[in-house]
């Protein structure tokens, strides 16, 4: 009778302090039964990866509204990989131009959501990512 | 990927690998199939020698900030520290926002500080057991000091606090009647009282109130309890608080109180696990009973337990 509560981490890498989006997503995930570890603003990619490892989350969600996503999101993916946790999927959100989305996905970001995305779609992406992660890690 | 097999997980645990520690705690918390093997693998001496500190108090008292300062001081002494930060699960969605880490992020790149957030998951039983298992895994991974941080409201959280060797109740001025309401609970079990935000207006009144409580406690149990003042955001009073804690620890180890508490919390954890394991079986029996639902529930419960005993005797 093992449990399947999904644990996720929501964090804001870099100097951008606009955390409304990150907090909105954190609350939406909580309201859908997720355990959300919220790390707050101005975290380095190394800090986010270390926290994700200690908390053993099934997915990491990043928010960026300052334009630094191109450097920061792949940096988190890389830090997770270095920490032996490259299997934890990273989902990003924020003000991100279309041409960057392809680039971020090439660099290992699982999915990107831009303003106006219905919240249900974001929850569904987290659910799918967590479910996949749980399956592979228990295999 | 990493640590999919039990052997590599146990190997990682022995090497104090953060990924393995994180995984192991989840497996035990989720009651996964490898849980027993993980718990059996832990070094019992390490578990025995670790010191568990409980930090409890109302929301906004500054528990996480104080915990972060305690971590800094312990680290400057070269101790490896584990933190279990417990937050409530939403009764509506079953989800939780675990935000205690925010105040402890400055330790996040320190490999000798292991922080784990845990949600209460609305369990009637099991939480105490899961937190106890996390304590053991952290101790087995070399943490000499473990801090359990929780609001301490409600029975299961009160039970968790009893896992600690020493419990500090953190309060702050301006939180109003919350503190009055705690009188019957946490004020009775705390070993130390901490007035945090001691530079704020109202701190002196609170200090005098708590001194009165400390004296009441001293009269009844013949054990005067300390009231410490801290300004956690500035690190003030933390050394003094840790000195009080160390003095209590030594006293408890010398008097046998330490061992008494450990055996009491052991019993509590065993009971918690037993209840957790029994629950689904009992629930199944209750639901399977096709009788009308208007008899007395207490008598029905006694019937079910009697029936389970009969079934059990038949098997063994």
From TrEMBL, chain A:
Keyword Cell wall biogenesis/degradation found: no
Record organism: Candidatus Desulfobia pelagia
Protein keywords: Cobalamin, Cobalt, Isomerase, Metal-binding
One annotated GO molecular function: isomerase activity
Cofactors named for this entry: adenosylcob(III)alamin
Keyword flag Membrane: no
Listed name of the protein: Cobalamin B12-binding domain-containing protein
PROSITE patterns: B12_BINDING
Residue span(s) of domain B12-binding: 5-133
Pfam families: B12-binding (PF02310)
Automatic annotation (TrEMBL), chain B:
A Pfam cross-reference name: MeaB
Keyword Metal-binding: no
Keywords, ordered alphabetically: Chaperone, Coiled coil, GTP-binding, Hydrolase, Nucleotide-binding
InterPro entries documented for this protein: GTPase/Isobutyryl-CoA_mutase (IPR052040), GTPase_ArgK (IPR005129), P-loop_NTPase (IPR027417)
SUPFAM superfamilies registered for this protein in UniProt: P-loop containing nucleoside triphosphate hydrolases
Keyword rRNA-binding set for record: no
Family of this protein: Belongs to the SIMIBI class G3E GTPase family. ArgK/MeaB subfamily.
Protein name (database record): Methylmalonyl Co-A mutase-associated GTPase MeaB
Species whose genome carries this gene: Candidatus Desulfobia pelagia
Upper taxonomic lineage: Bacteria, Pseudomonadati, Thermodesulfobacteriota, Desulfobulbia, Desulfobulbales
């Amino acid at each position: 009778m093992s449990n399947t509560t999904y644990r996720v981490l929501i964090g804001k890498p870099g100097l951008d302090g606009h955390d409304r989006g990150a907090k909105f997503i954190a609350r939406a995930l909580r309201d859908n039964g997720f355990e959300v570890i919220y790390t707050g603003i101005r975290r380095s990619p190394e800090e986010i990866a270390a926290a994700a490892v200690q908390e053993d989350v099934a997915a990491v969600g990043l928010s960026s509204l300052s334009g630094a996503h191109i450097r920061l999101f792949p940096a988190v993916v890389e830090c997770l990989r270095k920490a032996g946790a490259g299997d934890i999927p990273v989902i990003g959100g924020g003000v991100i131009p279309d041409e960057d989305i392809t680039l971020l996905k090439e660099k290992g970001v699982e999915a990107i959501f831009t303003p106006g995305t219905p919240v249900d779609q974001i929850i569904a992406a987290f659910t799918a990512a967590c479910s996949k992660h749980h399956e592979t890690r228990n295999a | 990927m990493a640590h999919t097999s039990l052997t590599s997980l146990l190997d990682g645990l022995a090497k104090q690998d953060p990924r393995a520690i994180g995984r192991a705690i989840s497996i035990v918390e989720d009651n996964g199939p490898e849980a027993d093997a993980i718990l059996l693998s832990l070094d019992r001496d390490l578990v025995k020698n670790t010191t568990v500190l409980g930090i409890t108090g109302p929301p906004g008292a500054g528990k996480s900030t104080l915990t972060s300062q305690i971590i800094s001081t312990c680290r400057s002494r070269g101790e490896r520290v584990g933190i279990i930060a417990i937050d409530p699960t939403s009764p509506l969605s079953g989800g939780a926002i675990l935000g205690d880490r925010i105040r402890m992020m400055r330790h996040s790149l320190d490999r000798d500080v292991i922080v784990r957030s845990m949600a209460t998951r609305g369990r009637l039983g099991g939480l105490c057991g899961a937190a106890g298992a996390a304590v053991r895994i952290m101790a087995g991974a070399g943490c000499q000091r473990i801090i359990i941080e929780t609001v301490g409201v409600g029975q299961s959280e009160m039970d968790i606090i009893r896992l600690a060797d020493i419990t500090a109740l953190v309060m702050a001025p301006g939180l109003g009647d919350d503190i009055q309401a705690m009188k019957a609970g946490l004020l009775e079990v705390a070993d130390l009282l901490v007035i945090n935000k001691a530079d704020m207006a109202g701190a002196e009144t609170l200090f005098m109130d708590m001194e009165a409580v400390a004296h009441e406690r001293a009269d009844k149990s013949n054990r005067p309890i300390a009231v410490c003042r801290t300004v956690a955001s500035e690190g003030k009073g933390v050394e003094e608080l840790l000195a009080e804690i160390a003095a209590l620890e030594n006293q408890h180890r010398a008097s046998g109180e330490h061992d008494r508490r450990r055996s009491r919390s052991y019993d509590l954890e065993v009971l918690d696990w037993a209840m957790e394991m029994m629950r689904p079986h009992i629930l199944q029996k209750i639901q399977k009973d096709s009788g009308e639902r208007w008899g007395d529930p207490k008598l029905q419960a006694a019937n079910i337990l009697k029936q389970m005993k009969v079934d059990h005797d038949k098997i063994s």
